[in-house]
Amino acid sequence: MERDKIRLIQQDYLDDPWKMLVSCICLNRTSNYQVKKILPEIFENYPTHVDMSQWQEKSVEGKRPLPQIIKPLGFMNRRSSILKRFSEDWGNLLKKCRYVDWWDLKQLTGMGKYAIDSYRIFIEDYHHVNPTDLKLNTYISENVNESTERKIWEVPEDYPQ
To answer: Of the candidates 91, 122, 99, which has an alpha carbon nearest to the alpha carbon of residue 27?
Structure first.
C-alpha cells in the first residue's frame, strides 16, 4: 500500500504569496493542526495585507482583533505585532517591485529560513533548497522537481497595493 504524500498548509495558498507567508509566521513554534483551525478566520477577517496592516486593538465591524484569533497559537501579542509589521512591509515591497524574488523577503519582518524556504519551494517552484524543517524536506523528497529554473512571482495588476 502506497503512503499518502505529505500535504502542507502552504499548498493551500499558492495563488497568494502573502497568505502563504502569513501561514508560515503562524506555524512558527506551533503545530499544523492548530494553525489550520485559525487560518480561515484570519483570512476571513483580514483578507489582504492592507487589512491586516490596519487591524485595530478592539473589535471593528464584528471582526475579532487579530491577537484574539491567534491566541491558541501562543505568543499572541508578539505574533500579531509581527503579522502587522510583515503586512506593512509586504505592502511597501509591492510599491517598489513588480516582481518578488525570495531575496526580497530577507528584509521583511518575520521572515526566517522556514518562510523563505517555503516561498522558494511553493511560489518559485524551486526544489533545490536545503530546508532544515523535516516536513519541508519530506515534501521535496516526495515531489521531485528536476528543473533548476525558478519562477519569479509577478505582482498581478489587480493585487491590493
So the answer is: 122
Whole-prediction pTM value? 0.91
Residues assigned a catalytic role: 133
**What pLDDT was estimated at residue 147?**
72
Q: What is the DSSP string of 17-65?
A: HHHHHHHHHHHTTS-HHHHHHHHHHHHHH--SHHHHHT--SS-BTTBPP
Q: Which domain holds residue 88?
A: 9-145
Residue 1 has pLDDT above 70, yes or no: no
Mean pLDDT of 125-136: 92
What CATH number is attached to the domain comprising 49? 1.10.340.30
- Measured CA to CA, the distance from residue 122 to residue 124 in angstroms comes to 6
Share of the chain above pLDDT 90, in %: 72
How many beta carbons lie within 10 A of that of residue 157, not counting itself?
A: 6
Q: Tell me how far apart the alpha carbons of residues 6 and 140 are, in angstroms, rounded to a whole number.
A: 10
User: Which residue in the block uniquely carries the three cell numbers 503512503?
Assistant: 3
Distance, CA of 152 to CA of 160 (rounded, Å): 18
Grid cell 508578539 is found at: 78
